[in-house]
Amino acid sequence: MRLTHSRAVLAMVGVTLMWSTAGVVTRHLEHAASFEVTFWRSFFTLVSLAVMLPLLRGRGVFLRLRRAPRALWVSGLCWSVMFTAFMLAMTLTTVANVLVTMSTGPLLTALGARLFLRHRIPARTWVAIWVAGGAIAWIYGSQLGQVGLAGWIGIAVAFAVPVAGATNWTITQRSHARGEDVDLVPAVLVGAVISTLATLPLAWPFAASARDLGLLAFLGLTQLAIPCTLAVICARVLKAPEISLLALLEVIFGILLAWIGAGEAPGPNVLTGGALVLGALVVNELLGWRQRT
Q1: What is the pLDDT of residues 78-114, one digit of tens each?
Q2: Which of 78, 124, 212, 242 has its CA 20 to 30 A from that of 32?
Q3: How many of the other CB atoms lie within 10 Å of CB of 147?
Q4: CB under 8 Å to 48, separation ≥6 — which residues?
Q5: CB neighbours of 26 closer than 8 A, spacing ≥ 6?
Q6: Do 84 and 39 contact (CB within 8 A), yes or no?
Q7: CB–CB of 206/36 below 8 Å?
Q8: For the whole model, what pTM was predicted?
Q9: Residue 261: exposed, middle, or buried by beta-carbon count in 10 A (0-12, 13-18, 19+)?
Q10: Cα–chain-centroid distance for residue 122?
């Protein structure tokens, strides 16, 4: 699949919208909790990708995994950390706390791209990162007094997501910068396998109802398998800091969906900060589009 820059940006917006459904769906689970939620979501992602990958990459995609380069396996490990830490954090603290913590991703990604890839980050992107980061910090600071012990644990677990995400995007960009024809789409499958196997012993005995399984199957397909595959494809066109900056839309979409669909109402600071994040994204993309045209 070949994308222009503009289409890749639009695709990433769609990706973040799909990613953002996790919080609101999780709040409607009946019995499944903690590691079981993580296990079933990863399991259904694995099943979805096992069907999708042969359609995208041919029947020999699984055989080629045996000869895959190290970058694919490291990327798969990063995906497994993101899959596991994200859902565990969602069961420990609010959707807003998880998403706000994850929003440190653009800064971490930009630093990684600068240090390890020697990428020159445009001034407009740095400004957008710092404006968005400041807005997120303001949102987070307004909620500090409301976070209990479980909330702090959830925030600490959630921080593993942007660290793994920054590492993943940097690896993806580095492999392409070196001219290596590395197909990193199967890395999403590897991540799902690792996450499934790691959480299975901790998820037993299962308590999920049929409704829970249906909701988690929905997440496995539309919140992980499809958008994560699209994100890897977009990484061939967009630079790592730009991908990570666009991923901040998940914060806005996720908080709004949790508010509308689960009653987790954000405070006025969250709404104001969210407007600043969106403004930084729009200005960055408009300036980039103007330079390219």
Answers
A1: 999 999 999 888 888 888 778 877 877 777 777 787 7
A2: 78
A3: 16
A4: 220, 221, 224, 225, 226
A5: 37, 87, 90, 91, 95, 219
A6: no
A7: yes
A8: 0.81
A9: middle
A10: 23
